[in-house]
Amino acid sequence: MPVSHMFISGRVQGVGFRYFVARLASKYSVCGFVRNLANGDVEVYAEGEEKELDEFRSKVKTGPSHALVVRVAENGVPIMSSNFKSFDILEDE
Question: Does the model's pTM come out above 0.90?
Fold first, then answer.
């Protein structure tokens, strides 16, 4: 299954970014997680069907209206033993 592992930088904490991503994941039937990182970035790991995952990634890279996405670092390397059944907002790093 295709995966996307993104690290989003900019004004992405304290603006509802994680909840925005979780709603998108539900809309596009994507599994994985989102969490705030200690350095101020947001980490997103997503698995899904290729078309839905592409749409999801495109929207995540824009973010909600109060966010300002400056940079997105992305790779498609699966996390070992990933077998996500849902999309979760994890505790901050």
Answer: yes
